[in-house]
Every structure is written in structure tokens, then in C-alpha cells.
Design brief:
Helix 1 packs across helix 2 and helix 8 packs parallel to helix 16. Strands 16, 17, 18, 25, 26, 27, 28, 29 and 30 form a 9-stranded mixed beta sheet that branches. Strands 6-7-5-4-8-9-11-10 form an 8-stranded mixed beta sheet, with helices on both faces. The longest helix is centred in the middle third of the chain and has 20 residues. The chain is an alpha/beta fold and about 650 residues long. Strand 21 and strand 22 form a beta hairpin. The relative contact order is 0.11. About 30% of the residues lie in helices and about 25% in strands. The protein is built from 18 helices and 32 strands.
């Protein structure tokens, strides 16, 4: 976005309009959007409130709403603020825009410190110790609205004036706003244009003109008066309403997926019991001494890339929150070498897309050698914000959150559901735990009837440790070649890992160490010269049919098929007494080799679903990672 400051007021040269009133932008925001929606009076007695905004702009409306929420809402209440923005501003520019409002300085500083460089998609930030949740939706307004699934309590309609930016006020956009509203949902907007009033009234809003701010004579406000008239999209993924009540959960599995699910629930004040069959957490696929985190980019935009990017940026914010001193993670960067013509072509196509250099940049052999700290013969791609994590320490930090109880040696033999409660039983039939919400995150140990139907592919992998006596070169970053080399800070590097598809035996073996060393010798001979290797970690990871994880509500496949036998004809009848989705049952699985990067946002997704909060992913990605997606595809084909 091209922005100027005219008499101290930010001005969009693209739209030829100011971002807020030159008289007093903060007071204008409170008059139009807070008072126009009868806020904060409406939220003083609620535990959750949802605001949708069309046009984040400088973030001034958000800061004004945040300040009012902080001062008037209950201490245990949570504000969800979902804001659309096609042309997001850099954090530095936002800070300049906020400088005119010293009363918002502390809030502005916290917001700008949490924002990364703008990128497409949904991006979730926790502020005010989790009391305020901001979800920025970067992209075309219509696309972002179509990706939203939760109905709002209030709308701040704050795009530039209809004459300047008609795309934000057209019928299709207003139809989506109505879809995301319910009886009692309000809106307020600075404009009183007749086209806007007529458009909102046609969608079911009762619209009225009221006095505007300053020199603007009139504005509009209104309330939705009718029930939604729109056919639900993808109803086969929709969950029945939760009964509410006790906020407690069982999580089976204390690897990275289970730890992330437990932490995100506990962060919301839930009581969480984690059942782990081993003697300690992170003993299987999450037990490597080093795990790499980085985004997965593709030659052209894809769902897999979009999911990976949103997960990567979310993980960076979580690491900043929980490991600010970088005690057990390192952002040394990841260098991805172009080892053959196919990988060189992929790197060139990614580099040609013009992605931000803070995310990825192309490097030649000389630059790659400087970044790596050793001579390499190939160029490739460098991801400057990526790096490695010590998984054991990371899981331990997550599991240390208030509200989480870990029980090791808890081998779950059976699962029962009755009277709204899930019970985990051991082999003798004794109860290991009980709660209304159950999250299954147990890796490959999923032999229960509720999970047995899910299609998994096991992949065995083994990484190796290069010992200090063989380390003649210091590495400055992670290197990906045909394998991966992760620099160590304890007298070793980690190399690997082998990849044995359809192999369920995760036992360590010397031949895998020899394979890792031979791969290193072929592609990075300087590191392999005189190397002594031993097993670092061996485990089995579960993968899905398309490398995307399986995360979300867990369906009963027979009930789902019975409810939607003719899905391709859009004929369906929901059975509320025997729903396709057993209440309170969720899955986090098939993270493959990218669990460290992706499982953080997966945990936030599960906690949002369990608490009936807006999900942190757009609908397209929700469906792409849904555990029932393969079954849905078969039903759609009839």
C-alpha cells in the first residue's frame, strides 16, 4: 500500500482517501464503531465477544476497541477481533500512524511487536495475556469473508468510502457479511451512502442513519433482524453445538501434537490431563535431539504452502512468547541446496514469485558458502527466520503450563463415551481419566474403534549424530541437501534422516547410520571427511495421503455416510440425536516430518473448535486438513 502523511494524517494514494479523521481519529473510531454498535455496554456481561472488521488499515479501530475491552470487560472474558485487509501496512508504518495517539502507545507497542511482515492468509495474535485475540485476514475481502465460518456479534464496516473503493461494498461482500451474522448482530459504518444502506437492508439488516463525527453529518448503524437464509457450505464438516459446562479435557499422547493441544486448551483456562504411555513425554517421533522448523514453499501457490506459511508464522510468535531468550531454539536459518536440475528449477520458480526476502531468498554458491560456514558447490534458497528446536525442552515448556497434569505410564486400552463424558480405560478396565473433551494425539498408537478407520501411512526414519572428534567444520545454519544437517551446540551435528515408507518398525539399526553418512559424503564431503556417526534418534511418523495432517473433529464414518449418502446431489438430513461427529472428540495426527513447524497452529485449531471459537484457518484449509476429508471426497463422487 502506498501511504503518505498529509498534515500528520495517513493518506492512501491508492484510494485517494484518509485512513481516519484529521480532527481526532481515535474519538471518531469510538463514536462510529463503539457507540454505533452499543459497545462496550453489550459485552460487560459476556465471556466472549466477536467483532468483524472490513479494513484493518492502521489498526486504530482495533486499538480503540482493545482499550475499551481492557477497561470494561470481565477479566476472564475474551475478545475475538477478525479484520480483513488487502493491503497490510508494515509494523513500522503502523507505529508511525499511532504516534498521534499517546493514550494508545502501550497497546500500539505490544501490537507492533507481535506483527511479522505482512503475508497472505489468516494470522492469529494473542494480546493482553490472551484476553484479546486478533485474527488478521490478508487478501481479497470477498475471499477472506468466504473463508470465515463463525458469526460475528458486531461489524465495523470501515473500508475506504464507497466511491473510492466500491469493491468492498458490493452485493457479494454484503451477502457474506449477512451470512456471518445472526439475529441481533449489529453493524456501524462511517458512510451513509444510499447504495450501502439499501444493500445492507436487502440482506436483512434494519438500517438507520445517525449523526456522524465532526464535519461528517451522518453515519449508519443497524441490526440483523432475520434468520440466515443461506445454505450452509460444506455442512458435512460442521459440528453440532457443544453443551457447554465444564472446561476440562483429556489428551492422549505427550508428543509435540499432544503438548500443543494441551497448552492451547490450558491457555484458555481449561483443566487438561495428558495421558502418556511411555515413562516421559516426547519419547517417539517427537524425541529427536533437534527438529527443524521452516516453511514449505511450492513453485506456485498451493493449499499445502498456504497452510505451512500460516503455521510457520504462528510458531515464530509462539516461540517468541514462550522462549524469548532462545534457550532451546535457534533461528540460524535453513539453507536448501539445489542438488539437481529439478530442485534448481523449483528454486528458480519460487525465487521468481517475488516473495518477501524475510521469508526466502535465492542465493548463489558463494552466498550459500558464506551462510553455511563451509564451502558448498550449489546455490539454492535460504530461509532466514527458520532454524531448529530442541523438541524435548520445547515439549517440557509447553507441558509446564498451569492447568496441565501429565500422567506417564498410562496405556489407554479403550475409550468410552456416555452422558457427555469421554473415559479412557486401561487394560483391566480402570479409569485413567474422564472429561467432556478428548483429543487423540497418540501418533501411531491408534487402535481404538473411533480411530481405526483413519487411513495412515507409517514412515520409519533414523537420524545420526556426528561426534565432536569428527567435526572439523562449524556450521552456521541448517543445510538441506538430499538429507539434512542440523548444527549442534553440544559437540555434535545431527544428520539424516532416512525415509522408509510403509515401514512400521522404528528400531534403530547401524545400516541407517551408514546410509545417512553416505548421503552426507555424496553431497557435503567436507562434513563427512573422517566422520564418526552413531544413532541419534529412530522412530515412526504417520503421514496422510497428501502430506497434510489430520486435525479437527473426528467423525463416525458410518453416521457421516448415512447423513450424506447423496452428497454430490446436495441431499442430506442431519440426525441431531445420533450426530456424525461425536461431541467433544478431536484428532491431531499425521504430522509427518513437519510436526514441529505445523503442530502449534494445529493445537490452536483444536482448542478453538473445542471452545466454539473462530478457527485460526480459512475454510479452505480447515477442509484440507480435516480428518474426514478422504471420506467426504468418496461421498462427493457418489
Amino acid at each position: 500500500m502506498t501511504l503518505d502523511f498529509r498534515d500528520g494524517t495517513p493518506y492512501s494514494t491508492r484510494f485517494g482517501d484518509v485512513y481516519y479523521s484529521s480532527e481526532d481519529g481515535a474519538t471518531e473510531s469510538a463514536h462510529v464503531f463503539l457507540a454505533g454498535n452499543d459497545l462496550p455496554a453489550r459485552w460487560t456481561d459476556t465471556d466472549r465477544f466477536l467483532i468483524g472488521e472490513t479494513g484493518f488499515g492502521t489498526g486504530l479501530n482495533f486499538l480503540v476497541a482493545w482499550r475499551a475491552w481492557r477497561d470494561t470487560a470481565r477479566p476472564d472474558a475474551r475478545l475475538h477481533y477478525l479484520s480483513l485487509e488487502r493491503y497490510p501496512l508494515d509494523p513500522e508504518i503502523l507505529g508511525r500512524c499511532h504516534a498521534a495517539f499517546p493514550e494508545l502507545e502501550l497497546l500500539s507497542r505490544e501490537l507492533c511487536s507481535r506483527l511479522g511482515q505482512p503475508s497472505p492468509g489468516f494470522h492469529r495474535l494473542f494480546l493482553e495475556q490472551g484476553r484479546v485475540v486478533l485474527t488478521l485476514c490478508h487478501g481479497e475481502a470477498l475471499d477472506m469473508l468466504r473463508g470465515m465460518t463463525a458469526p460475528m456479534d458486531a461489524w465495523f464496516l470501515d473500508g475506504f468510502a464507497p466511491a473510492k473503493n466500491p469493491e468492498l461494498w458490493n452485493e457479494a461482500v454484503l451477502r457474506e457479511i449477512a451470512r456471518l451474522s445472526r439475529p441481533g448482530t449489529t453493524f456501524a459504518t462511517f458512510t451513509s451512502a444510499g447504495s450501502v444502506r439499501r444493500g445492507l437492508a436487502a440482506q436483512g439488516f434494519a438500517v438507520q442513519k445517525t449523526p456522524g463525527f465532526g464535519r461528517k453529518r451522518e453515519m449508519c448503524r443497524g441490526v440483523m433482524e432475520r434468520e440466515p437464509r443461506y445454505r450452509p457450505r460444506a455442512p458435512w464438516y460442521a459440528l453440532p453445538p457443544e453443551a457447554g459446562g465444564e472446561r476440562s479435557a483429556l489428551v492422549i499422547g505427550a508428543g509435540i501434537a499432544g503438548a500443543q493441544a494441551a497448552w492451547h486448551l490450558a491457555y484458555r483456562g481449561w483443566s487438561v490431563k495428558v495421558l502418556e504411555r511411555h515413562s516421559a513425554p516426547a519419547m517417539e517421533a517427537s524425541g529427536s535431539p533437534r527438529a527443524v522448523f521452516s516453511p514449505f514453499l511450492t513453485a506456485r501457490q498451493s493449499a499445502e504452502e498456504q497452510f505451512s506459511l500460516q503455521c510457520f508464522e504462528y510458531l515464530l510468535r509462539q516461540l517468541d512468547m514462550l522462549d524469548p531468550g532462545r534457550e532451546f531454539h535457534c533461528r540460524c536459518g535453513v539453507l536448501e541446496l539445489s542438488m539437481n536440475a529439478e530442485r534448481a528449477d523449483r528454486a528458480a520458480r519460487i525465487a521468481a514469485r517475488g516473495l518477501p526476502s524475510t521469508l526466502v531468498r535465492a542465493v548463489n554458491p558463494e552466498e550459500a558458502s558464506e551462510l553455511a560456514g563451509i564451502h558448498v558447490d550449489q546455490g539454492g534458497l535460504f530461509y532466514p527466520s527458520a532454524g531448529w528446536v530442541n523438541p524435548g525442552a520445547w515439549v517440557k515448556r509447553l507441558m509446564a503450563a498451569d492447568g496441565i497434569t501429565l500422567e506417564t505410564g498410562a496405556n489407554v486400552n479403550d475409550l468410552e463415551h456416555a452422558d457427555g463424558i469421554w473415559r479412557a480405560l486401561d487394560a483391566p478396565g480402570d479409569e485413567l481419566g474422564a472429561a467432556p473433551v478428548l483429543v487423540v494425539a497418540s501418533g501411531r498408537a491408534m487402535g481404538w474403534p473411533v480411530t481405526r478407520w483413519i487411513p495412515f501411512t507409517p514412515v520409519a526414519g533414523q537420524s545420526s549424530r556426528l561426534h565432536a572428534e569428527s567435526m572439523r567444520h562449524d556450521l552456521r545454519c541448517v543445510i538441506r541437501h538430499a538429507g539434512t544437517v542440523v548444527p549442534g551446540d553440544g559437540g555434535f551435528h545431527i544428520v539424516g534422516s532416512t525415509f522408509q515408507r510403509d515401514e512400521a518398525n522404528g528400531e534403530a539399526n547401524e545400516s541407517a547410520d551408514r546410509e545417512n553418512l553416505e548421503t552426507l559424503r555424496t553431497h557435503l564431503p567436507l562434513l563427512a571427511e573422517g566422520a564418526v556417526a552413531s544413532t541419534a534418534h529412530s522412530a515412526v511418523r504417520m503421514t496422510s495421503e497428501n502430506r497434510l495432517p489430520l486435525v479437527g473433529a473426528l467423525a463416525n464414518p458410518e453416521r457421516l455416510a448415512a447423513e450424506y449418502p447423496h452428497m454430490h446431489r446436495r441431499r442430506y438430513t442431519r440426525n441431531e440425536d445420533d450426530p456424525a461427529y461425536p461431541p467433544g472428540l478431536f484428532l491431531s495426527a499425521a504430522w509427518g516430518s513437519r510436526g514441529m513447524t505445523n503442530a502449534a497452529l494445529g493445537g490452536e485449531l483444536l482448542a478453538s473448535l473445542a471452545g466454539e471459537e473462530p478457527p485460526p484457518l480459512q475454510a479452505m484449509l480447515l477442509h484440507a486438513v480435516h480428518p474426514a476429508r478422504s471420506l467426504v471426497r468418496r461421498l462427493q463422487r457418489g
